[in-house]
Write a structure and sequence with these properties.
The chain is an all-alpha fold and about 80 residues long. Helix content is about 65%, strand content about 0%. The protein has helices at about 10-15, 25-35, 40-45, 50-65, 70-80. α2 (about 25-35) crosses α5.
């Protein structure tokens, strides 16, 4: 394409319709780590956080996304292009 950027119009519309990403950087980090189905202790160790802090970030992300659990929140964030 002669070095030009090409964006599929449907993809662009879908991305714009999702709105701005409501997740903080740390919430995204914790959700990304959750995709591997790691335990809270594993996620905390990987990100150098306490388990309570991981729980707080997961809870905030789940609330923002209207998810029932951390895996659902992570998958929703992936689908929306936020992870």
């Amino acid at each position: 394409m002669a070095g030009a950027r090409v964006v599929d119009p449907e993809l662009a519309l879908a991305t714009l319709s999702e709105g701005a990403n409501p997740l903080t950087n740390r919430e995204r980090d914790v959700l990304s780590a959750s995709l591997s189905a790691a335990s809270l202790a594993d996620i905390a160790a990987r990100l150098f956080l306490s388990e309570g802090t991981v729980r707080n970030h997961l809870s905030a992300a789940m609330q923002k996304l209207g998810a029932r659990n951390r895996m659902e929140a992570a998958l929703l964030a992936v689908q929306k292009g936020w992870l």
